[in-house]
Amino acid sequence: MRLSRPALGATLLALAVLAVYGASVGYEFVYDDHVQIERNPWLRDPRGPWLFLTRPFWGFYMDRGTEPSNYYRPMFGLLYSLVARGFGLQPAAFHAVSVALHLAVTLLVAYGALRLFSGRRGDVAALAAGLLFAVHPAHAEAVAWIGDQVDPLTAIFVLAALYSYLSRKDRGEGAGWAGPLCYLLACLAKEPGTALLLVLGAVETAEWRREGSLGAAIRRASRRLLPYVAVFAVYVALRLHALGSFSPRSYGVTSSPAGAVAFAGGLFARYLAFLLVPFPARVLASVPTPTLLSPVAIAGLLALGVAFLGLLAAAWSGRARREVFLPLAMIVAFLLPVLMVNSIGGSNFSERYLYLPSIGLAWLCGLLAGRLAEILHGRARKATAALGLALLIALGIAGGARAAIYRSDLTLFRAAVRTSPSSEIARNNLGMALYNRGHLDEAEREYLQARRLDPDAVPPLANLAVLYEKRGDIPRAETTFEEVLRRSPTHTISAVHLARLQRQRGDRAGAIRRLDALFAAGGESYDALVDRADLWLEEGRPDKAIPLLERAVRTFPEYSKGREMLKRARREKGPAG
C-alpha cells in the first residue's frame, strides 16, 4: 500500500492500533488511576488548571503529607480534567483517549518518516515505521494504562515541535512561534519532553556545513535555538515555583557519584536491549544496582561513549545524513532523562520510558525497509515483505497480550509479581488488589512478603493494619497503626483510622490528640478535617469546626458529608459568625 494515498495509509495504521489496543477501552482503572483520577478533586475544580500549573502534580493528594514531589506535569493534569469534565470518571473514556493519542503519535511517526525519506522509498519507510510503532510491545504500558497516557501526549508535542523546527530550518527561517509553543507544552506534559532541546542542538551541530560557513551556521542556529532555550528557562521557572527546587526529592537509589554513573550505564544498556528485543514483559520492574566494572554498566557506558563520539564525528563533518543521525539522536536524547534514577520514584525500569526513544527505532527500521525495497526485486522483495509482515503480526499479538496485563489491578499486580517477585511495591499492590476482592488471607500473605522484602516500607504495614481492622482484630490493628505513625507521622489514613477506633471505645480525648498531632506534623486529608470538625461540633464549638470544613469542602466540593456539616456548623454559630 503506497502511503502516497494518505487516507488508505492512515486507515492501515488505525486498524493496526485498534487491533492491538482496541480492547483496552473495556479495561478498568488500575494502580495510580484510583488516586490520580477517582480521588482527584482538581479534575472538576474550576481552579484545576491553575492548580496543576502552580503546584506539584500530586499536590491534590493530601494523604502524602509534606513529602516533596519531583513530578510537575500541568498539561497531563489538564488532559485529565478535560476528559473528566466531558465524560465523567468513566474508565472507558480515559482508555479511549489513550488509544486516540497513540494513533495520533503513530500517524506523526509515519509522517516524519515520509519527510525523512523521499520517493517510493519514503512511502515504504513511512508505512513500515508507522506499523512498527503502532504494534511495538514496549508501548503496552503507555497505551493500556491510563496513568501513562502522558507519554503519548508528550510525544505529540515533541514531534510537532520537531517538525516545525526542521521545516523552518530547511527554508532558512527563524524559529517562528508554533515550534517553541509545542516545545513548552511538551515540557509541561512530562519531564523527558525537555530533551528535545538536545535533539535540536545535535541537528544543528551535525548539519552546520549546510549553512555555508561556521560563522553563518552559528548565527542562524542561535536565531533558531534561542526561542527554545527561552522556553526551557520559562519551564524551569514554573517548575521551581511549583516544586521549590528542580528535583526536591532524592529516592536514594544510589549513594555515590560512582554508583550513579554505574546505574546510568546499566540502565542505558538495558533500555537499548529491551528496545530491540522487548521480551519478556517488564511490569513495574526494578533492576539491581550494578558495580562500575560490571559488564552491563561497562556496556552502557561504552554505548554512551560511542554516541558522544558519533556526535563529534558528525560535528566534524557537518554534513551528517539526517535520516540516520536524527533517529539515533532521538533514541539517545530521550533516554538520558530516565537515567537519573535518584529523581525517579517507584520502579526504576519501566517500559513506558521507551515510548519516546522508540520513535527513533521506528524511523531506523523504516529506513531499512525503504532501502530493501530499492535493492530487492521479484521474489526476494516479496519474501522480505512477507517476513516483515509476519514479524509485525507477531509483535502485534505480543503487544495485545501485554496490554491485557493492565485489564485490572489483579491482572496487573500478578504480572508484576511474576516479573519482579522481589519487589515490595508489586507485592504490596497485589495485596491491595486481593483485599479489595475480599481475599483477606491471600492479601495478608502478600503484605507480609512485602515487609520481608523491605522491613522499612510503610505502605504494607499500613495495609496490614487496615486488614486487621477489617477482620475485627482491633488491638492488633491499633498497635500496627501506632507503628505506622511512629515511622510516618503524616500518614493520614492511619491517623484517621486510629482516631475513629478511639472514638468507638469512648476515648474522645485520644482521638482529638491523634488528629491534632497529624495536623501539627503537616498531614491533612478530607476525612481528617471532617472528623476533627465533628469533634469540635460535639463540644459545641462550631467556630473551630467551620475553618476545617471549609478547607475540606474547598478540596472535595463533590463530597456531601462535608457540605452538610458546614451548613450545620454555620447554623449553630448563628448570624454573628
What count of structural domains? 2
Proportion of residues in β-strands: under 5%
Mean pLDDT: 93
Poorly predicted regions: none
* Structural class determined from secondary elements: mainly alpha
Rg from Cα: 27 Å
Gross morphology is: elongated
Number of helices: 26
Structure, explained:
The protein is mainly alpha-helical. The chain has two domains: 7-250 and 259-379 and 395-405, no CATH class; 409-573, Serine Threonine Protein Phosphatase 5, Tetratricopeptide repeat (Alpha Horseshoe), CATH 1.25.40. The protein has helices at 6-21, 33-38, 48-54, 74-87, 91-116, 119-135, 140-144, 150-170, 178-189, 196-206, 214-243, 257-276, 295-317, 322-335, 357-375, 378-403, 409-419, 424-436, 440-453, 459-471, 474-487, 492-504, 508-521, 526-538, 542-555, 560-573. Helix 10 (196-206) packs antiparallel against helix 14 (322-335) and helix 12 (257-276) packs across helix 13 (295-317). It is elongated and about 85 Å long. The model has no long low-confidence stretch (mean pLDDT 93).
